[in-house]
Write a structure and sequence with these properties.
Number of domains: 1
Largest sheet: 4 strands, antiparallel
CATH architecture: Single Sheet
Order of helices and strands: HEEEEH
Radius of gyration: 14 Å
Strand content: 15-25%
CATH class: Mainly Beta
Helix content: 10-25%
CATH topology: N-terminal domain of TfIIb
Number of helices: 2
Bound molecules: zinc ion
Strand order of the largest sheet: 1-2-3-4
Distance between the termini: 52 Å
Number of strands: 4
């Protein structure tokens, strides 16, 4: 089967390999960090949690990608407000 289903119990203990160590969520055939939004591949049903193999999020691996950023970073990044 091409479906790379990750066991829910396994997914629950996986974390981003960067300094944020944030939980990951399943997105299609990849895992996405809930903090930095970096994308990690799943090969043969095995999550590849290596920084070298990851696709960095918008602010880089280990750096918050928007909504979950601390208040200070959110204020600095909120250029839409007057
Ligand atoms: Zn992360």
């Amino acid at each position: 089967m091409p479906d790379p289903m990750i066991d829910a119990d396994l997914l629950a203990i996986l974390a981003c390999p960067s300094d944020d160590h944030a939980p990951l969520r399943l997105s299609g055939e990849t895992l996405v960090c809930t903090h930095c939004a970096s994308v990690f591949p799943i090969r043969d049903g095995i999550p590849v949690l290596l920084i070298d193999d990851a696709t960095p999020g918008p602010n880089g691996i280990g750096h918050a990608a928007a909504s979950e950023a601390p208040a200070s970073e959110t204020a600095a990044a909120d250029s839409a407000a007057p």
